[in-house]
Amino acid sequence: MWHPDGVFVFIGVSPNSDFLPREIERDRRGFVTTDKAMQTSLKGIFAAGDVHA
Question: How many domains does the chain have?
């Protein structure tokens, strides 16, 4: 039997990204877009978690 080490619950469908600078690119739903290293369009700023697409 499989026993997970943790469970992550998805809450909501709208990211809380309004506080971020406008220079950081977002998709049409407001999620922050990143490259494979999780870096945003603003150099040196990274995003992860529920705000990340």
Answer: 1
Tens-digit pLDDT string for the chain (53 aa): 888 888 777 666 788 888 899 999 999 989 999 999 999 999 999 998 888 87
Phi, psi values for residue 51, rounded to 5°: -85, -15
Residue 50 covered by a domain: yes
Distance CA 16, CA 26 (A): 12
Is 28 among the domain residues?
A: yes
> Domain range spanning residue 49?
21-53
Distance separating alpha carbons of residues 27 and 52, to the nearest angstrom: 10
